[in-house]
Write a structure and sequence with these properties.
heterodimer; A: alpha+beta; BirA Bifunctional Protein, domain 2; seven-stranded mixed β-sheet; 12 strands; 32% strand; B: OB fold (Dihydrolipoamide Acetyltransferase, E2P); four-stranded antiparallel β-sheet; 4 helices
């Protein structure tokens, strides 16, 4: 079981050897019981893990960390929800720093993938329940590739902690640590330290303030531009030829 | 409501199955009729409402106004500023508005049925749609009880903050 010295995150942990999706399980749990804030559902194997709508999250059984956290960020306005995303990305980043991956190597690829070098090691999928214009519940699904040594060639740029460090890790131990970092950043959010979170998030964005190629979805045009930050709603702000432009999720692609 | 909003509304109505749309705001009312308007049978907006309530309503004027209109049957979309009765029809419904900017989905995932459809009874806390913004998925729950009489927005299209999503006849 989890050995974590947190106040609430991970104090209730449900381990499921095999499950379709930990997020789906968490959602089900919310409709039936009243799981306490910080409840963690984690799985040895996910058979239908999800990324974005329609896309799946592939993971080898018992080698990776797949967990969903149930939180109740009812202090956040609906339009502040990108801050939750930033808090979680930073929690995963802290976990990677704690296993001695360097600040230079661990980056957040907008909006919320975690990269080591130019490879994706973790993804986040957040599902909120909105009632009366407040975020009543939040299910935060995190997938972190840990001990997997090989990936399907169909995936673009996957990696794992094992590939990047040459070491294997205890998943329960990583998860216990992750609980601590999630709690830390969640409490920061609760204390309304949103601008602090945003500043660290921005500084650690993948390809922040460096000139790279991006492809604009609508025109298929490839432009050279640099990332300057994100808007409060989470849109990517880039500078291209002395012009500032904002892009939503599927409107721009990194060329990696 | 400004001119461009009116224009947008007209094209929205034209591209839908709506025969007639009445909007009333403070000091302003708008009536749009399309070639799909078929006199008193313009049930989309008016008569799907529970008849009981219509009879009980102190101003059952929707009826005469619509019967007066069959001349308009074949007309393309026309806009007329009206002062009288039709406003009562729209006023009967409560709009559920979007709590946020994002992409509107009617179901939790493409292979799932819609959360709600026209005719469904909803109550407080019934999930009514999903709005995605920057990879955050928001299940929006109703704040009111009643019957869905109209879905105002297409699946998988962008929504603005405060944009009307559904018309609900309050229970």
């Amino acid at each position: 079981m989890l050995n974590t010295d947190t106040l609430f995150v991970g104090q209730t942990a449900i381990y499921l050897p095999t499950i379709d999706s930990t997020n789906a399980y968490a959602k089900e749990l919310l409709t039936k019981n009243k799981p306490s804030a910080g409840t963690v559902i984690w799985a040895g194997q996910q058979t239908a893990g999800r990324g974005q709508v329609g896309s799946s999250w592939e993971t080898a059984p018992f080698q990776n960390l797949t967990a969903s956290f149930i939180l109740h960020p009812n202090f956040l306005e609906v339009n502040q929800q990108f801050a939750l995303n930033q808090a979680i990305a930073l929690a995963i980043r802290d976990l990677l720093l704690s296993i001695n991956l360097s600040n230079e190597r661990v980056k957040i690829k907008w909006p919320n993938d975690i990269y080591v070098d130019t490879d994706k090691v973790a993804g986040v999928l957040i599902e909120n329940v909105i009632e009366k214009s407040k975020i009543k519940h939040s299910i935060i699904g995190i997938g972190l590739n840990v001990n997997q040594s090989e990936f399907s060639p169909t995936l673009k740029n996957p990696t794992s902690l094992y590939q990047k460090t040459g070491k294997s890790f205890e998943i329960t131990q990583l998860l216990s640590e992750l609980c601590r970092f999630v709690e830390q950043h969640f409490l920061q959010l609760k204390a309304q330290k949103i601008s602090e979170l945003k500043a660290i998030y921005t500084q650690n964005l993948f390809r922040y303030q460096e000139i790279y190629n991006f492809q604009i979805a609508e025109s298929q045009e490839v432009i050279q531009a640099q990332i300057l930050g994100v808007s409060p709603a989470g849109k990517l702000i880039i500078q291209h030829e002395n012009q500032l432009r904002e892009f939503g999720l599927k409107e721009i692609q990194f060329i990696i | 409501m400004d001119f461009s909003q009116i224009k947008e509304l007209i094209s929205l109505v034209q591209n839908s199955n709506i025969g007639e749309l009445n909007i009333k705001q403070k000091g302003f009312s708008l009536n749009i009729r399309t070639d799909k308007f078929v006199g008193s049978q313009a049930a989309t907006v008016v008569q799907t409402a529970a008849p009981a309530i219509q009879q009980a309503a102190p101003i059952p004027q929707a009826q005469p106004v619509q019967q007066a209109a069959p001349a308009a049957v074949e007309k393309p979309a026309t806009v007329t500023e009206t002062k009288a009765a039709p406003k009562e029809t729209a006023a009967k419904y409560v709009e559920i508005k979007s709590p946020m900017v994002g992409t509107f989905y009617r179901s939790a995932s493409p292979d799932k049925p819609a959360f709600v459809k026209v005719g469904d009874m909803i109550s407080v806390d019934t999930p009514i749609c999903l709005i995605e913004a920057m990879k955050l998925f928001n299940e929006v729950r109703s704040e009111i009880s009643g019957k869905i009489v109209k879905v105002l927005i297409e699946n998988s299209t962008p929504v603005e903050y405060d944009q009307p999503l559904f018309w609900v006849e309050p229970a």
